Amino acid sequence: MGFQEGKDEMVYKQKIDLCVSELMIIMHWAESADCIGADFPVSPDQVAHIASLVSIELPDNLDLYLTHYAS
Asked: Residue 52: exposed, middle, or buried by beta-carbon count in 10 A (0-12, 13-18, 19+)?
């Protein structure tokens, strides 16, 4: 999810097809359950790593967050 700095309205959304085990090192999670129950701010280095893994470009002018969604 992406937000303009200082605003609460989401202006960007992108589904990322990575499993928790792939994100654990990038997001510095100790256990797979660490991804549950929160939205996680993503640093520019984390954004670059995630974008590289899924071969997409992510905006660099927004505050980005990683959230979990299970359908």
From this structure: exposed
